[in-house]
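Structure, all two chains, one model.
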Amino acid sequence: MSLLPLFQWAAKASLFAVMRDSKWGFAMVEMVHLLALAALGGIVLVVDLGILGLGLWHPPSLRRAMHELAPLLLGSLVLTVLSGLLLVSAEALKCYYHPAFRIKMVFFAAAVIFHFTIHRKSLWFPEGARPPVGAKVAAVVSLFLWLGVGLAGRAIGFF
Amino acid sequence: MSLAEICKWVNDAPLSTTIRESDLLFPIIETVHVLAITTLAGTVAIVDLRLLGVILKKEKVTAVAGQLLPLTWVGFFLMFSSGFLLFLAEASKSYSNPAFRVKMLLLVLAGLNPAIFHSTVYRGVSAWDESAAPPWRARLAGALSLVLWSSIIVAGRAIAYF
């Protein structure tokens, strides 16, 4: 099944006319997207570097800190997705055919799925213990996937 | 020499011209700049939210701030150096860009805020290190920092629209 009809609909939908026709509509949503991804990327970085033991969040506070940052991460993720959907609606067909956008979506899907499955499970080590090798590998994979999202996302604007 | 003339001179320097005219250099530096903002603003926001008593309430303020500070400095260094290179390439354009001017002003304020905070209320941090709700001046510094850095990101993004 092709997603093209969906993007074609979005490109014409009157619902998104504001996003398409006003320069500042797009700009404001893009700013929200940037603010939310700064929070998201910052938290991912803090958590994953913490698991890798790079000077941040020494155990025993590591697990507790990650637990407390989880809602913030979820909130910024929701905000990036919502603002991202609006941005796509303004340039639906450009995005559909854009290689960087496609790569970004693959990385994004992988990063989100990985985050809520393997990454989350890898954090089930005992309170106060040092993170096991599995958790460290998961942290590296997570950093790689989110970096891919960021790089591909930035590349959409360049061609 | 006026500021506008200095910017013009910087703008026409060989390094600036190289960055501006390169198909790859400018996007690469800009990508580093955005990633660095994530590192800087993300870690700063976590410390600010601790000062406001929103998250990590059971952690000591000094533990949160101390552990994140190295990462904040890495982000700051990358952001400042990449931002400086971007400015070189577009010095003349930046000079007359209102969003750029606002951003520079906000950056000065964002620098003054922690300078004042660290030389005043933070000196007595041992008295409220474990407090879930630090004194109002600490909370004010945290709130100001969140507002200032968010505004810097917004103003930075707006540069492209003028």
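The helical segments of chain B are 3-11, 14-21, 25-51, 61-89, 91-95, 98-119, 136-158.
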